[in-house]
Amino acid sequence: MSSGVTQADPGVVPLSEPADGVGEVVSTPRSLDRVVTAFGAGSGPVAADAERASGYRYGQATYLVQLRREGAGTALLDPVTLPDLSAVADAVGPVEWVLHAASQDLPGLAEHGLRPPRIFDTELAARLLNLPRVGLAAVVADTLGLGLAKEHSAVDWSTRPLPVDWLRYAALDVEVLVEVRDVLAARLEEAGKAEWAAQEFEHVRTLPPPAPRPDPWRRTSGTHTVKNRRGLAVVRALWEARDRNARERDVSPGRVLPDRAIVAAARAMPRTAGQLAAVPEFATKGARRRITTWQRAIDTALALPDAELPAIRGPRTDGPPQPRTWADRDPVAARRLDAARAIVAELSDTHDVPAENLLQPDAMRRLCWSPPEPAGAEEIAEFLRGRRAREWQIGLVAERFARGFADA
C-alpha cells in the first residue's frame, strides 16, 4: 500500500505553478467560444473541479469552474456571468470526466449544463484502494510525489475579482488530475477492483438529488440540550427567522446568527429585547443589529398554544431504531446485525477496502432489522438493489448474509 505522504515529506516536489501559468477568468461569451473550440479540439479526459462559497453565501452555488484537457490547457470559468456552460460539454462529447469527490461538485456543475456522461472519481478510487488519506493533496502526493498546497480551500469564492493566488490554487486543482487518474486506474486494475470502481463511479454520477429533510431546524447544533417543547419552539422560530434573513441577503445562515446563539436563547427564554441582548451569545454587533427581529421570533414561539409546540422527538423515519436498543427490542435482529458486521469486517480485511465502502451501513441495518421473507441469497440481493447497493457489493455479501442470518 502507498504511504500517503504529503507535500511536507521528503522526496515530495511542491507543485506551485500551473504549467501554462494562470490565465484570465473566462467571463464573456466571446472568451467562452474560444474555450469551446479549444476543448473540442483537445484529446483525452476532462479534468474538472468547482468552487463554492460555503460558509459565506446562502446555499451551495458554484462560483468558479475549472476544466483542463490535453491540447486545450486549463480554463477557469465564471458561472455567475456565464450560467450556461453546456456548449463545453457538447464540444467534448462522450469523454470521461475526472473529478475528486465528485458527489460534491456534480450537482453544481449540472446547474450550469455540465453533465458528464462518464466519470472517474479520484477520491472514491483512493477509498477502494484503502489509501490512508484521500484528500486531493494526499492523493496527489501518494500517486505522483507532488505537493499540492490547499491554503485557499475555504476562501470566499464569490469574491470579485478573484485574487491571482486563489486562481493559481484553483488551476492547480485540475493540473495533474488526469495523471492521478491514470495511476489510480492502474492500481485498481492490478488489485482486481477496476469493475468495482466503474460501478461506484456510475452510482455517484447518477445519484438523484437528496430529498428535503423534515424539520431541518432540528439540525441546529446543541438542540439536544434544550429539554422542553417551548424551548424547541424558540429554536424553530429563530432558525426560520435566520433562514429567511440569510436567504434574502445571500449570506450563510451561520454568519447571520450562530447556532450557539439560537440554543442560548431557547434556554434563557428572554421576554424582552433587552433581556435577549444580555445573553452573552448575542453580544456581537451582527446579533445586536437585528435584536428586535430575533425577539419577535421568540415572542411568536412563546405565544404558541401547547398543541402547536414541536414534539421533543423529531418525525419518525422509515429507518430502524438505534442498534443499541436492538438487543432488548428484537434480539434476533441484533444477532443478524452482529453476524452482518462480522462478515463485512472479514471482507474488508480480505479485500483491503473500508467496511463502509463494502456496503452502506444504513442498508445493512435496514436489512438486518427487516429482512425479506425468506431471507435467501436472491431475496437479500434484491433487497440490497432496492437500497442502491452495487452488484459487486451484492456479489460479496448476499450469500454470506443468507448463511449468517440462518444461524442467527
Task: Tally the structural domains.
Answer: 3
Q: Major sheet, described briefly? A: 5 strands, mixed
Q: Please provide the ordered H/E string of secondary-structure elements.
A: EHEEEHEHEHHEHHHHHHHHHHHHHHH
Distance between the termini: 36 Å
CATH architecture of the largest domain: 2-Layer Sandwich
Radius of gyration: 25 Å
Q: Average pLDDT value?
A: 95
Instruction: Write the CATH homologous superfamily of the largest domain.
Output: Ribonuclease H-like superfamily/Ribonuclease H
Structural features, described:
It is flat, with a radius of gyration of 25 Å. The N terminus is likely disordered. α1 runs parallel beside α2. The protein folds into 3 domains: 193 residues, 2-Layer Sandwich (Nucleotidyltransferase, domain 5); 93 residues, Orthogonal Bundle (DNA polymerase, domain 1); 85 residues, HRDC domain (DNA polymerase, domain 1, Orthogonal Bundle). The strands form 2 sheets. It has a 5-stranded mixed beta sheet with strand order 4-3-2-5-6, sandwiched between helices. A two-stranded parallel ribbon has the order 1-7. Helices cover 50% and strands 9% of the residues. By secondary structure, it is an alpha/beta fold.
What attributes characterize this protein structure?
single chain; 408 residues; alpha/beta; Nucleotidyltransferase, domain 5; DNA polymerase, domain 1; 3 domains; two-stranded parallel ribbon; 20 helices; 7 strands; 50% helix; 9% strand; disordered N terminus
Summary, kept brief:
The chain is α/β, with parallel strands linked by helices.
